[in-house]
Specification:
By secondary structure, this protein is of the alpha/beta class. It is built from 14 helices and 13 strands.
Length: about 450
């Protein structure tokens, strides 16, 4: 159990007006607090059983505060492995405040951010890898990001970490046995098998990191800037990708003067689309700022969607933009495919066919193909790979260090003593990922990112 045996409480649902709100309690005084403030609709002498729901009212001084449903979860069969209860009251600021205040007046204290999940970790219900995935589940924007986070929560990452740690422990034992009994050196065949096992462990660490990178991509997504000269259909393209009229579209050049940002999901990858001002000779201060911002986004975005007007020959502005985009991840979107084609791309530029996409933002032609190419550009070489799990930046960094230590132990000229130390360090990094060995300040930083009721 946790050293801090206070009973905590918090509103676990978002603030504001809603149909219901959930107030969560955890700690040894939970049954007593519920018995003091909750009056069941039917008088019962037997205490409420675990994992059951009762209907009634929250009452103080014979005054009904709200009509509620109370769910009890007895230790250790609860999220925190402590005595827990959830009070389902009416949503809204006044109702939730009254019920929460009643819990505090009867002995609970307000929970700190992430304290429920921290207690679940400290009480051994989940490890740190699972605890960090809880936060990502809350923030998932796509079904793929959710699936990657759930995979970590259900223990897929933890089981692989445990197997890796056991493999490294076994390998270290072999090395230390050779140090302790130098006369019993490994035969050539045993040495080859030992190195093969080391390589397998390294490959497993790198494979887990690759899957984590795909999970991170599903969670964080990429930034894509729509750039081009005026009146090529950038805002129309944004509306076509969004399937709604988000940006103002007119025949007047320069309608968009500032960047417009929206997020779409492309095959599970969140893509933050930035529609920028058209590149042109500017007159006013506002236009000049908009064009400057467009060029800034072109440099900062992960992917550039350079829009060209297929119904007109290349202009000097088009040529400048294409030259500026050559060293960046870029898709060349030839718009207005519904009109006769007049645009010719010089063969000397050698633009890859996979980066050119003809579309009509007006009719929707080619938009699906553009989304496929946008996804392929976003995921890069991971297109054909399968599997994704959530790994935080902290976890990925620790796995990188683990891989470096295993690689050092693999070196042909590494003395046994050094190899043993490298493997010891590799195991330590794995322990930090799972939380078997982690500093208090690291824990505090991780759980401070959670909302109060989680």
């Amino acid at each position: 159990m946790t050293e801090d045996t206070d009973t905590i409480c918090a509103v676990s649902t978002p603030a504001g007006i809603a149909g219901i709100a959930i107030i969560r309690l955890s700690g040894p005084a939970t049954p007593r607090i519920i018995s003091e403030i909750f009056r069941p609709n039917r008088r019962r002498t037997a205490p409420q059983k675990s994992h059951t729901v009762r209907y009634g009212h929250i009452v103080e001084d014979d005054r009904i505060l709200d009509e509620v449903l109370v769910t009890r979860m007895a230790a250790p069969r609860s999220y925190t492995r402590e005595e827990m209860a959830e009070i389902g009251c009416h949503g809204g600021i006044a109702a939730t405040r009254q019920v929460l205040s009643a819990c505090v007046r009867h002995g609970a204290r307000p929970a700190r951010p992430g304290e429920f999940t921290m207690r679940a970790f400290l009480n051994g219900r989940i490890d740190l890898a699972q605890a960090e995935s809880v936060l990502q589940i809350v923030h998932s924007q796509t079904t793929e990001a959710l699936a990657a986070s759930v995979a970590a929560l259900t223990g897929q990452v933890s089981r692989r970490l445990a197997a890796l740690r056991e493999a490294i422990r076994s390998l270290r034992a072999v090395v230390e046995a050779g140090i302790e009994f130098p006369d019993e050196n490994l035969s050539q065949g045993d040495a080859s098998a030992f190195r093969l096992r080391l390589k397998e462990a390294l490959a497993q660490v790198n494979a887990l990191r690759d899957e984590g990178h795909r999970g991170r991509l599903c969670a964080d997504g990429v930034k894509a800037a729509i750039v081009g000269r005026v009146n090529v259909g950038k805002s129309s393209l944004l509306n076509a990708l969004l399937r709604e009229d988000r940006a103002l579209v007119t025949e007047i050049p320069g309608t968009t003067r500032d960047a417009i940002e929206e997020t779409i999901a492309v095959r599970g990858v969140p893509v933050r689309i930035i529609d920028t001002a058209g590149i042109r000779r500017v007159r006013g201060t506002v236009e000049r700022m908009g064009v400057r911002k467009a060029l800034w986004w072109m440099r900062r975005a992960d992917i550039t969607l350079l829009v060209l007007d297929g119904s007109r020959p290349l202009s000097e502005y088009d040529r400048r933009l294409i030259r500026a985009s050559r060293r960046r991840a870029c898709l060349y979107v030839v718009n207005k495919a519904d009109l006769p084609r007049k645009l010719r791309l010089p063969s000397a530029w050698r633009l890859p066919d996979g980066q050119i996409c003809e579309v009509s933002a007006l009719t929707g032609k080619g938009i699906a193909e553009l989304e496929e190419k946008l996804h392929a550009c976003a995921v890069g070489q991971n297109t054909a790979a399968s599997g994704a799990v959530f790994l935080s930046v902290r976890q990925d960094d620790l796995l990188r260090r683990c891989a470096e230590e295993i690689a050092e132990a693999l070196k042909e000229d590494a003395p046994d003593e050094c190899a043993a130390e490298h493997l010891k360090a590799a195991a330590r990094y794995l322990d930090e990922v799972s939380g078997k060995s982690v500093r208090a300040d690291v824990l505090a930083d991780i759980f401070s990112r959670f909302c109060v009721g989680k």
